[in-house]
Amino acid sequence: MSDKKNNKNFNLNRFNTSFSRRSFKSGAYASVISAVVIALVLLVNLIINEFDLKIDISSEGIYTLTDNTKEYIKGLEDDVTLYYLIEAGKEAPMFLKIAQKFESFSDRIALEQVDPIQYPTFSSEYVDDEVSLNSFLVINNNTKRAKYVDYNDMLIKKFSEQTYQLEIVGVDIEGQLISAIQYVTNPKLPTVYYTVGHDEPEIGPIFKDIMSRMNIDIQPLETFFTTEMPEDCDVLIINAPTEDFSDSEIETIKQYMAAGGNVVIAVNYLAKDLENLNLLIDYYGVQIEDGIIHEGDPNHFIPLFPRFLVPKVLKHDITDTLYNGGRFVIAPVSSGLIIKSGIRSSLTVEPLLQTSDKAYSKVDISSGKITMGEDDIPGPFNIGLISSDTYEGVTSNMVIFSSAEIFEDNMLADYGNIYLLVDTIGSLVGEIETIAVRPRYLYPKPLNITQKPVIIWATLTIIAAPILILATGIFIVIRRRRR
């Protein structure tokens, strides 16, 4: 009997002792910490879900609205409804999430779902378009002005040489939705004309698509047959002509500008020989320099092409997006722009884009020499300017860029030139605020760099890396011999 009692006391002592061991204390501490961490994770998850504090980790920021979009929709004065045309349970998560972002950033925007199969005549009350699933209908509730955004217009497709089919490479949901919102909230939309008849290059499809996104009507204009500019012309674009304008054409443009008109001119080195066009540019206090600019600073041209400039972006309303966003512009084959001295007091000329101090203008363009010659002109140079003339309370504006290719489609597609175009036109069309958002790509786009980082990485790869490897090998050999 006493043996059983002793065994019982022994087991109880062992049990009590186990609680005082270091292993138990460590295990108990770990359990408490684990419980606290789990509780914190659950709490953080609840907060994130409650306040929609999700982080967009996509490389292109697909689920994040741009600052321009946020600013625009926060300033809306009319109530707008985004109708997502889809069957319940068949929503595309990406489409729905981005539309929800619009609703979350503006009290004026509401998001609703409508099943077009269940309500087949709903869209026909507002638009004539044939609707498809996964599309949007944007309606201004105050004016009933509406715009249909088709599913296919929100997808970026590219022909694949591997599959010989069109593949989805990006999305344009935010861009199409903000374009539709601008359309329904602006009763009067701007009109832009571009000159034809002077051997100008054709305005490209990407250029026209950008204008469409901005809800700008863009039309060709044969100024040779025009005695006065159209009344609805908000901006006239003169895009790299290679043949001169007549005296009467220049006079018509001058009269248009004197009444408060706006002109955007893109020229190249050949424009120096266009006498009448130069007289118009000269009238606004600007002169085109001889030759083609070669950039001497490797941080201001793209690799291996010193004529493809990456100019300094100077602070101005037109360059605001570029200046604050750190994006760079490519200006191929540019000439210098000189601000004339002794200009009339009504003129204000401001630089927008500028080369480095190491740039020079190669006067003899047929020369095969890259280095600066005796006849070449040292920089820096302006390659983008805005000249404003205010007379008797009326202001006209001329924006001039000295690269004929600055707004070509390949420049607009891959570089910051799209923002330069959008902000240039947007700043000139008057009181109507216009923005455009570029598409987001599902795959990383090629990295845009200047010549300088190429030199640095080439030096590291070709010189530094082999030296480091050789030094490491020598160190190992010496160390082994000493043993």
Q: Topology, pairings included?
A:
Blueprint: H1 2-20, H2 22-51, H3 67-74, E1 80-85, H4 93-105, E2 109-114, E3 135-140, E4 146-149, E5 155-159, E6 166-171, H5 173-185, E7 191-195, H6 205-213, E8 217-221, E9 235-239, H7 247-258, E10 262-266, H8 275-283, E11 286-288, E12 292-294, E13 301-302, E14 305-309, E15 312-313, H9 320-325, E16 331-332, E17 337-339, E18 347-354, E19 360-362, E20 377-378, E21 382-391, E22 394-401, H10 409-414, H11 417-428, E23 440-441, H12 451-482
Parallel strand pairs: 1-2, 7-8, 7-9, 9-10, 10-22
Antiparallel strand pairs: 1-3, 3-4, 5-6, 6-23, 11-17, 12-19, 13-14, 14-16, 15-18, 18-21, 19-20, 21-22
Keywords summarizing the entry:
483 residues, alpha+beta, Glutaredoxin, 4 domains, 12 helices, 35% helix
What is shown here, in short?
The protein has 483 residues and is α+β, with helices and mostly antiparallel strands. Helix content is 35%, strand content 22%.
How does this structure look, described?
There is one protein chain. With 483 residues, the protein is α+β, with helices and mostly antiparallel strands. The protein folds into four domains: 2-51; 67-173, Glutaredoxin (3-Layer(aba) Sandwich), CATH 3.40.30.10; 191-431, Rossmann fold, CATH 3.40.50; 450-483. The protein contains twelve helices and 23 strands. The protein has helices at residues 2-20, 22-51, 67-74, 93-105, 173-185, 205-213, 247-258, 275-283, 320-325, 409-414, 417-428, 451-482, and strands at residues 80-85, 109-114, 135-140, 146-149, 155-159, 166-171, 191-195, 217-221, 235-239, 262-266, 286-288, 292-294, 301-302, 305-309, 312-313, 331-332, 337-339, 347-354, 360-362, 377-378, 382-391, 394-401, 440-441. The strands form six sheets. An eight-stranded mixed β-sheet has the order 8-7-9-10-22-21-18-15.
